[in-house]
Amino acid sequence: MALEIEKTSLPGVLLVKPVIHGDDRGFFVETYHSEKYAELGLEATFVQDNHSKSKKGTLRGLHGQDRRPQGKLVRCSAGEIFDVAVDTRIGAPTFGKWVGFHLSSENHHQLYIPPVYLHGFYVLSEVAEVQYKCTDVYDAEHQLTVAWDDPAIGIDWPLDGAPLLSAKDAGAAALSEVRDRLPLWSED
């Protein structure tokens, strides 16, 4: 079995299915190899790694940055999440569209979200640990936070009751309210 990288319905968003070597002792999985990933179309230079731990029902997002946007390679190393990417390129045929995938410590799948897309996730298991590599550093001053439940985006979150939100996420703006901070799409 070989490493697989699948295109999704959003340009540049890729679902990565690494090779898992398992036996009665456990498993081994290579979570990133720049040459192998690049050969299959995921060419990115990562400069920051993040790790979060969240309890069931936590929803983090939707987040992005208008300056120094971050591409993210996301994986769930413990538990299970529903991971989402939203296209924010004004004028793009897929502007405001989203894709979502289940990432878990069982399937070892990863989601690559290009810079200028929004990202968020919802925790499905009792606890989830999420790790992601970023193509640029975090810039709090230029962070974009868009409402997770913005009807203009219409994400079909697999909620089990009201989500647990940070104060920042609970007070997030609609996509239309941050439009002047979003990038313009170009066919180049």
Fold topology:
Blueprint lengths: L3 E4 L6 E4 L2 E4 L2 E4 L4 H6 L8 E8 L3 E7 L6 E7 L1 E8 L10 E7 L5 E4 L3 E7 L3 E8 L8 E3 L21 H4 L18
Can you put this structure into words, describing what you see?
By secondary structure, the chain is mainly beta. The protein has a single domain, classed as Jelly Rolls (Sandwich), CATH 2.60.120. The chain is built from two helices and 13 strands. The radius of gyration is 16 Å and the shape is globular. The strands form three sheets. A six-stranded antiparallel sheet has the order 1-2-10-7-12-5, with no helix packed on it. A five-stranded antiparallel sheet has the order 9-8-11-6-13, with no helix packed on it. A two-stranded antiparallel sheet has the order 3-4.
Summary, kept brief:
With 188 residues, this protein is mainly β. It has helices spanning 34-39, 167-170, and strands at 4-7, 14-17, 20-23, 26-29, 48-55, 59-65, 72-78, 80-87, 98-104, 110-113, 117-123, 127-134, 143-145.
* Tally of separate domains: 1
Parts with pLDDT < 50 across at least 5 consecutive residues: none
Which of globular, elongated, flat, extended, rod-shaped describes the shape?
globular
**Terminal CA distance:** 35 Å
CATH class: Mainly Beta
Please identify, by name, the CATH architecture.
Sandwich
Sheet having the most strands: 6 strands, antiparallel
Order of helices and strands: EEEEHEEEEEEEEEH
Say which CATH homologous superfamily is assigned. Jelly Rolls
Give average pLDDT, whole number: 96
Query: Roughly how much helix do the residues carry, as a percent range?
Result: under 10%
DSSP E strands, number? 13
Question: Which radius of gyration do the C-alpha atoms yield?
Answer: 16 Å
**Class of secondary structure makeup:** mainly beta
- CATH T-level fold name: Jelly Rolls
Number of helices: 2
State the strand order across the main sheet: 1-2-10-7-12-5
DSSP strand (E) fraction? 35-45%
